[in-house]
Amino acid sequence: MKQSNLIFLIFLVIPFSYAFAQENISHAIALDSVFLQQHGKLADFYAYAHQIIDKDSLKLERLSDALKNKSSVFVREYGYGMLSSLSLRGTGAGHTQILWNGIPVNSVLNGQTDLNTVNINNYEQIILKKGGSSVEYGSGAIGGILALNNSLVFKPVFEINNTTNGGSFGHFENFTRLKIANQKYYGSVAFQTGQSENDYPYVGYELTNENAAYKGYNYNLVAGYKLNTHHQIYFKSQNDHLDRELARTLYMSENSKLITSHNRNLTGWIYQHTNFKLQTDLAYLFEAYDYYADKSLTKNPDRSIATVFVVKNIFSWKKNHFYINWGNHFSYQEGKSHYFELKTRKIYASYVDWGQKWNKFKYNLKLRKDFEKNYDIPLIGAVEAGYKTGKYFLIRGNISKNYKLPTFNDLYWQPYGNPDLQPEESYTYEGGLDFLKNNTQVSLTGFYIKSQNLIKWTPGENQWWSPKNIANATYRGIEINFRQKYLINKLDKILFNLDFTYQKTTDLNTQKYIPYTPLYVGLAGLEYQHQKLKIKYTSRINGKIYTTSSNTTYIPAVNIQDISLFYQLKPTISLGGNIDNIFNVYYETFPSRPEPGINYNLYINFKIK
């Protein structure tokens, strides 16, 4: 057995021998109130359904790194820093909806969000929810959602925060944020710039990651004003620009590049009085993709752009242990490309959800109806329930119906788009058991997703690829989550976490595994804290990934080890760093596009309060 696999196995087995021996430790789970208040839901009912991604606000890390280092999800990358997407429970990247302050932002062109265009330091909160969520968020939330939230806290604060990051392969970043607030207003502005040669060597090959340099910037603005006790208004804006060469593969050199830009703006108003709340949001989203087959060119790229206008209203009422939410969502979408003329789409949706708690039993019911002139989108719904048995156990389950509309690229890409495509539909069934006692948390979840009319791009007689509704599929698996805190003394503690997902994805037409999805994903982390010092060791594992529909070729399973260190030098200065892939393992998540071998990153943070 390889050394790295042995380490992961030790991490997997040891904690369970102690999990139920801890009798005198205190523990509680609660979901961040900002996200809950936005939708008027009961915190204790939804705590089990979400995972807060515990990002280190002092460290500059990519969203893709934060996800794969802190949760058992699969992040597919076309090489480090290149196009990156999130897969939940074996579903495709287009089945995970990314939310920006409650607004769906997956591209109307390709149905995805490139994780490497998102700067997580701009957000106070990142929430991952696995499981069908189309009732709340519409098309594309079959596998789950990832929510990026900016919070407004009206209390006195003045803070300047600056982090400088540098490391292997010419990597350099700088992030600066100014935050000012009191009981009446809130303001935060942040700016980040970064670049990298990204020319890492391919482990085991006499090749380097050529034509892979990138540079970019982003800025974020959040402002809010409390008109009085009941009314507040706010404005949120996020802009990013990334100039990125597109890396070579193992077998072919490359000379192209892609420039991406996003502009997201949201203004809103909240009225809240006793048990009643009304929220209105207006949003404008813009995205642009400029592809240059020859990176030396400066004019006439293959250009794709899209704009989206959103109007959203949410009415919430809560009394004792009962609540009801009623929402309306209107979206106007338009897109055009080098490969198709301007196309538009209008979607109106109305949804309602209500829930109640009776002693140890809680339930939640949801219904949603969408209207779009080209499709007869069916009524969809969800039922969620939980029952607390004994002092420490919670039994839970949910059933939901979800859907995904074809993207503009699916429908109109010339000459092989397919305007006759129908929406995908799916049913999700999920059940689980949670154990919560003091500093110990154990969670076991089983899931089953059955989808029909899946949209797949397949080669035709002329070998050109085109999309068709040909695939019916099932996604089933088990998720195990474990958290443990050991208090050694007043100064020392050890934190352990384990996340493991087994997922079997089957194309029912061929009875084969669906390509590009690992059979399992795992994560184990061990952290030691002593006063101002933190040291963390992380072990990540991806199972075998089939790369053809016939399951004849595959990417082998891999285990990667990382180590990080943090030290609070002074109240205003902190230092940190990490060494990733410390055993210099060759691995890839997409064929012929290797990830880096051993590499390091260092950072320093200054904070004025």
Any descriptors?
disordered N terminus, 5-stranded mixed β-sheet, about 5% helix, Maltoporin, Chain A
Quaternary structure state of the chains depicted = single chain
Low-confidence stretches: 1-48
Helix count, DSSP H or I runs of 4 or more residues: 6
Largest sheet: 22 strands, antiparallel, barrel
The residue-averaged pLDDT reads 87
Let me know the number of strands: 32
| Broad shape | globular
Percentage beta strand: over 45%
CATH architecture: Beta Barrel
Characterization of this structure:
This protein is 6% helix and 56% strand. It is mostly beta strands. The protein has a single domain (3-608), classed as Beta Barrel (Maltoporin, Chain A), CATH 2.40.170.20. It starts with a helix and ends with a strand.
Detail the topology: elements first, then pairings.
Blueprint: H1 3-13, H2 33-39, H3 43-46, E1 51-52, H4 63-70, E2 74-77, E3 84-87, E4 96-100, E5 103-104, E6 125-130, H5 134-137, E7 144-149, E8 157-167, E9 171-181, E10 185-196, E11 214-226, E12 231-245, E13 257-273, E14 276-292, E15 302-319, E16 322-337, E17 340-358, E18 361-371, E19 380-389, E20 393-404, H6 408-412, E21 424-437, E22 440-459, E23 465-487, E24 492-507, E25 512-513, E26 520-530, E27 533-542, E28 545-546, E29 554-555, E30 558-570, E31 573-580, E32 599-608
Parallel strand pairs: 4-7
Antiparallel strand pairs: 1-6, 2-3, 4-5, 6-7, 8-9, 8-32, 9-10, 10-11, 11-12, 12-13, 13-14, 14-15, 15-16, 16-17, 17-18, 18-19, 19-20, 20-21, 21-22, 22-23, 23-24, 24-25, 24-26, 26-27, 27-30, 28-29, 30-31, 31-32
